[in-house]
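#dry-run=false #mode=assembly
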Amino acid sequence: MPVEAKVDISARPASPPLTERQEARRRRILHASAQLASRGGFDAVQMREVAESSQVALGTLYRYFPSKVHLLVATMQDQLEHMHGTLRKKPPAGETASERVAETLMRAFRALQREPHLADAMVRALTFADRSVSPEVDQVSRQTTAIILDAMGLTDPTPAQLSAVRVIEHTWHSALITWLSGRASIAQVKIDIETVCRLIDLTEPDEKK
Amino acid sequence: MPVEAKVDISARPASPPLTERQEARRRRILHASAQLASRGGFDAVQMREVAESSQVALGTLYRYFPSKVHLLVATMQDQLEHMHGTLRKKPPAGETASERVAETLMRAFRALQREPHLADAMVRALTFADRSVSPEVDQVSRQTTAIILDAMGLTDPTPAQLSAVRVIEHTWHSALITWLSGRASIAQVKIDIETVCRLIDLTEPDEKK
DNA sequence: ATCAAGTCTGAAACTTGTTCTAGATTAGCG
DNA sequence: CGCTAATCTAGAACAAGTTTCAGACTTGAT
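#status=ok
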């Protein structure tokens, strides 16, 4: 039994370029997804509703995004691009790299606080994603890494710095989850971010090596 | 409309003590859960199957564990207790606190590698859990904190040390997820753990303050 | 031992993610 | 234009988590 090649059209450098109407459909779907998510979070994004809101048949929705998690992760990619653009315009002002990274992440955090339900939907999808969504989740991860490296002001990071960035991302995701599930306060998240950002300082004094 | 008080019997210091048969039921359920999880991970733990395997009616299963996520988080609590016991017997041998913590987490990681599907089920449940599972997730978190503090050999940690531990836990959870979803290798997880554990060293030299 | 309250069972029903199907539409091409 | 393959639609069907309910069984107190 051949496993029907089920291609995720939303994969970034998509194989066949989308027609105009298809691009429009994709936009409508992502918009509906974000809208519903903004209301009630992960649970409120119901595939039938997304389909209806975006004027698309359920089957079509599934052709564009092979699962709810795919859809929400794509929604996150979308939002992340916005965010990266916004952040680029006003770079963080901190003295040290770790300050700038912490400032950047806190800025992103405040943006998420404005739409906590949307944040819930996206982050839950991200961490719940299984292997079938790996490419998309990886893309989100790369984007996040790029944002952090931007804040550090680095063009070619050392391995030690990349490790620090990885750990910062881990902390960022996990801290968001504890906040979203009400187990950590905003202040606590701030502390966690600031704490992990000190790791960057450990990678700075590399002249002694 | 009164929100029917739906008490999770599995909550640790349970309100009414369970009878023997109830305790036995609870054990059977957790055992079946772990067994099914060991096979196919999160998806393989199907409530109907758990009920059947543990010789309990579906409704009863839901009385003991109000959702699949509750069940899996309870399963994790159970496993964590084992683990803590095991770890206590052979304390880590490292010189510094950060080495001992890294060693302890790597030991736990190797245990998880032996049952990757079970790990998948438990960790996915943990990060997917919403507010209704907060108490149970918190309990898991406290247990994890205890394990790490044990490894550090601390009785009363400073706030800075607690922050470091929080970040280590964040990294631990998130690194596990990237490993489970195939986006990070075992080696990568090792590096991440070792990297974050250096944070502990930053809290050591407190005599100069 | 007996009664009331609480618990367990088996089965059906409901919800929402996902798949499938048959027929209409659209896109690209000669 | 007219054809063919791909895409889209509406709607049914299926799967698994969750809820509900009537009746049988236990438990604890009298």
